[in-house]
Each structure stands twice: as C-alpha cells, then as structure tokens.
C-alpha cells in the first residue's frame, strides 16, 4: 500500500483521494456510491460517515482519514478507488 494523503474537512481535502475514500466508505456501508455527494470535497456529511466507520473499526473517531483509517478502508476500495490513489 503506497503512502496515501491525510484527509479531513479542515485540511481543504479535495480531489481524487477524497473520492477514493468516499467510494470505500460507501462500499463498506453497502450504500450506492451516488448516495454520497458526488463532489470530491471532504465536507461535513462525509466527516460523519468517516467517524461512524472509525467507531465501527475501533479507530479513534476523529473524522480524519489518516494511515490507520486508510488501512481499515483498504479491503473496501474498489478498482476505481485504487486507480484514483
């Protein structure tokens, strides 16, 4: 697993890595990807989804996607998400 960026709402996290994280969270939740906002912006709605995922996985519920959260998300990243990273 290559080095992935730290993402959070306060870091102005936008772009491909945010989209990849959204895809992983959606797959984990078994939601359809289009239920998440289609933008590549890490907003308050997605922060709530990240915190819930972190709680489920026993990770400090900070809302920041860092190394531990990426590691937990890895099994849920589909081919498109991996291409984005």
Q: Give average pLDDT, whole number.
A: 86
Number of helices: 4
| Shape assignment | globular
Question: Which structural class is indicated by helix and strand composition?
Answer: mainly alpha
Radius of gyration: 11 Å
Termini separation comes to: 10 Å
**Number of beta-strand segments:** 0
Beta-strand share of residues: under 5%
List the helices and strands in order.
HHHH
Q: Profile the largest sheet.
A: none
**Low-confidence sequence ranges:** none
Indicate the percent of residues in helices.
40-55%
What key phrases describe this protein's structure?
85 residues
Could you walk me through the main structural features you see in this protein, from its secondary elements to its overall organization?
There is one protein chain. With 85 residues, the protein is mostly helical. The protein is 47% helix and 0% strand. It is built from 4 helices and no strands. It has helices spanning 16-29, 44-56, 67-73, 79-84. Helix 1 crosses helix 2 (44-56). The longest helix is centred in the first third of the chain and has 14 residues, at 16-29. The termini are close together. The relative contact order is 0.25. The mean pLDDT is 86.
Give the arrangement of secondary structure elements.
Blueprint: H1 16-29, H2 44-56, H3 67-73, H4 79-84
Helix pairs in contact: 1-2
């Amino acid at each position: 697993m290559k080095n992935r960026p730290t993402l959070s709402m306060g870091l102005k996290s936008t772009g491909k890595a945010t989209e990849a994280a959204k895809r992983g969270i959606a797959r984990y939740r078994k939601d359809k990807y289009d239920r998440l906002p289609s933008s590549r912006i890490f907003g308050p709605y997605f922060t709530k989804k990240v915190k819930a995922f972190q709680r489920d996985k026993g990770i400090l519920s900070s809302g920041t996607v860092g190394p531990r959260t990426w590691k937990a998300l890895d099994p849920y990243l589909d081919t498109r998400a991996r291409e984005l990273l």
